[in-house]
Amino acid sequence: MMHVKEHDVSKASELIAFRLGGQEFCVDIMSVRDIRGWTQTTPLPHSPEYVKGVINLRGSVLPVIDLAARLGFRSTEPTARHVIIVTQVGSQSVGLLVDAVSDILTINAETIQPTPDVASELARAFMKGVLAIEGRMISLIGLDSVLQSTRESSGTLN
Amino acid sequence: MAAIKQTFFQECEEQLAELETGLLAIESGETDEDTVNAVFRAVHSIKGGAGAFGLEDLVRFAHTFETTLDLVRSGQIQPDAGLIKLMLRSSDTLADLVRYSRDGGDKDDARVSQLHDELTRAADPNAVAAETKPAKKQPKNAARVPQPEPEPVEEPETSPEDDFVPITISFDDLLGGGGGETQDDGQQVYKIWFKPKPELYAKANDAIKLLREISALGDADIACDISEVPLLGELDPEGAYLSWNIRLATTEPEAKIREVFEFVEFDCDLTVEAEPTPDPDFEFVPEPIVPVDQRADEAGEGPLIPDAVLAKIAEIASAEPAKAMTAANSQAQPAQAAAQTTIRVDLDRVDRLIDLVGELVINQSMLTQRVTEAGIARLSDVAVGLDDLEQLTREIQDSVMAIRAQPVRPIFQRMSRVVREVADMTGKSVRLVTEGENCEVDKTVIERLADPLTHMIRNAIDHGLEKPEERVKAGKPEQGVVRMSAAHRSGRVIIEVSDDGAGINRARVKEIAIKKGVIEAGVQLSDGEIDDLIFAPGFSTASTVSDVSGRGVGMDVVKRSIQALGGRISISSKPGKGTVFTLSLPLTLAVLDGMVVTVAGQTLVVPLTAIVETLQPKASDVHGLGERAKVIAIRGSFIPLIDVGNKLGYREEEADPINSVAIMVESENRAQSALMVDGIIGQQQVVIKSLETNYGQVFGVAAATILGDGRVAVILDVDAIVAGNRSDTAKADVANRKRNAA
């Protein structure tokens, strides 16, 4: 999992930027499999608050994570205008519920700055760094850590 | 190379199965030539392949085994009960050696060498063999890998004198005196020209075996054409220079002749022509003739061509090159002909296809639903077309599922070994009778049946059958019978394991159950309930699934394994008559029959196998028990009520039982519980989708599925919910006690 990410980050790479609770975030485009509108999820019993449930993605069962809630923001009340970014790391696929997709960015690894200390502990755990682009600040989300912790938190519920 | 080796091991498994089937058939009295040949061929193939991979242990043992089988085949020793037993044990050991060669691990050298000795002794050519087959040949061959030897495989169907000793035989002699049959009785005469290419030999086939096979079909005159053999200096040792003209008078159809050459058809030039009438102009080559049967011995004369050339020819004709990938297998058998129409496919590919078809089915039902919602008339072209599509997708689904389906035969065969071993261990005489081996079940189901069945068979022999003297005393035959049968019944597979032993000793079972604390002393139980006690957890000591194949493991583990497969197990026993275990299993693990229910606005699926009945609770039947627990009175017994919505965290407050539907479920240990749901939508077959691939395990959820509307629904894990309820109640009890104590 890690190899792909690090390889991409070290060179010029493309990122998909999206909005979430008034802030901008981005993920590596290589991990994105699909972007689709919000569909009603089937809630899973005893799941953490940030797990919205599962949806049917062309025959496989895809968990949808409310990324805002995961990052410690207020949880999203999804509407038809919300977007699910289907990401894949390794063999695991997860949908990320975000407010809207905003941009596709091409960046160099040097553009990535370390996450400032002021960010909350939770947010920092999932951020690999920040980008300054045209006066905007965009945080780069490390998907493996998001997916990893999803696995763990579902596991601890057993 | 690794891939080829893997293929070899796969083939070994098939050959071993064939071997065992054959031996068991011989044991039951079918000593016909075909059976014996099949057995011989299986061992021979394994040996041939093993030689190519340098698996010396395997080759050595297979060779000894083969030598003995060869003598049986040629009728020089008779397969009596002792010998058959020896051969069965040898086949087990051969299987062990194959597995050892494949997986490594421990091998029982002592056992191998002991059997080795026994086989050698059995093959001791003290009778007819002594004069025709030099005795020294066997130990010599047995002691080393016989590969470089020109002809390691002796096939003395009639005489072991296989070496090419060309002799002149007069034409008249052969036709008149040899076979003793004329073309009168509906025989047809075929002219066969057979010219092997070098590849034929390179694949470890042997011309003489084919010729012998041909001569077995009827009255054959075989002439070897050596005109193409070059001078020694120009002779390529791996070339093929010989061809044969065969004149065969037979009642068999032409197809039968072609079948003989089926395995080499691309490696030889072959013509088969029927002669309209016995043709006196047939160009029979009165040249050196390869002796094919005993006639050769009788008519034997001196060679016509120099010995050196002959020796070379013999070497060419029977060379078994070291690079041989699979063993010589030149005799075409109908069964093998059928096997040729199969292909090996990676299971992942099949599973992918099954997944895709599952999606197709879901998609199709979604489409149907949408069309209905759109208000399109039932008889419109669209709707009719959709109906056709539905039928097609169902058919595709069935066909795809059938790919994974496999006959239960291999697992039944494996059990015959278990029977032998346990019978030896316990000193009981046991006969295993199997029925319905061709019954097909999903591959995974079959694989996961091995352990439970092994344990049930062990139990049946160890605990079920009486000792021989007790059996005689009870007026039963000394040999006990364990019966395994498989049959399809209404979309499920029913497997029965029964014995004709003493039946369950209910007094003793009850005593043990009381001693182990499974039941309270003084409880009144029906016979059926006592029988069921053996499935109770704690009735026997061990409890892990991996121990099933070991000894002294509880039937509760067996029951759990069967339930994990979506199956059920039941027992019935008659004192003095025996015990029957009945397994009911789904045909496939990819789909499941479920009851679709609603709970707190969510749609859930309850596996139908767990459900006993459904009912609408009456207010008078529902009783509170303690602080939180509720029970429902059904036919005199009180059964715990479980609110599924609350258990799964869909709602805080427990639902009112009166407005719910109670689904009676049976979980481990036959304990019944009533699951409360809001409503039942219907029954449906659902495709099982993994939650774990992308998420993980969820408490109370066995898997997910996709319903006709395209939404995901979770499939309840009934056992977990019932168990969770119990532990919740227990926790509440502990909390209460603490509070009371404080």
Automatic annotation (TrEMBL), chain A:
It comes from the Bacteria. PROSITE patterns: CHEW. Residues 12-152 form the CheW-like domain. Gene3D superfamilies: CheA-289, Domain 4, SH3 Domains. PANTHER family: CHEMOTAXIS PROTEIN CHEW (PTHR22617:SF23), CHEMOTAXIS SENSOR HISTIDINE KINASE-RELATED (PTHR22617). It holds the Pfam family CheW. This is Chemotaxis protein CheW. InterPro entries: CheW, CheW-like_dom_sf, CheW-lke_dom.
TrEMBL record, chain B:
It catalyses: ATP + protein L-histidine = ADP + protein N-phospho-L-histidine. Keywords: ATP-binding, Chemotaxis, Kinase, Nucleotide-binding, Phosphoprotein, Transferase, Two-component regulatory system. Residues 1-101 form the HPt domain. Residues 386-589 form the Histidine kinase domain. It is an enzyme of class 2 (transferase). Residues 120-164 are annotated as: Disordered. Pfam families: CheW, H-kinase_dim, HATPase_c, Hpt. One of its GO terms (molecular function) is protein histidine kinase activity. The modification Phosphohistidine is found at residue 44. Its EC number is 2.7.13.3. Transmembrane segments: none annotated. It comes from the Bacteria. Residues 591-727 form the CheW-like domain. Involved in the transmission of sensory signals from the chemoreceptors to the flagellar motors. CheA is autophosphorylated; it can transfer its phosphate group to either CheB or CheY. This is Chemotaxis protein CheA. It comes from Aquibium pacificus.
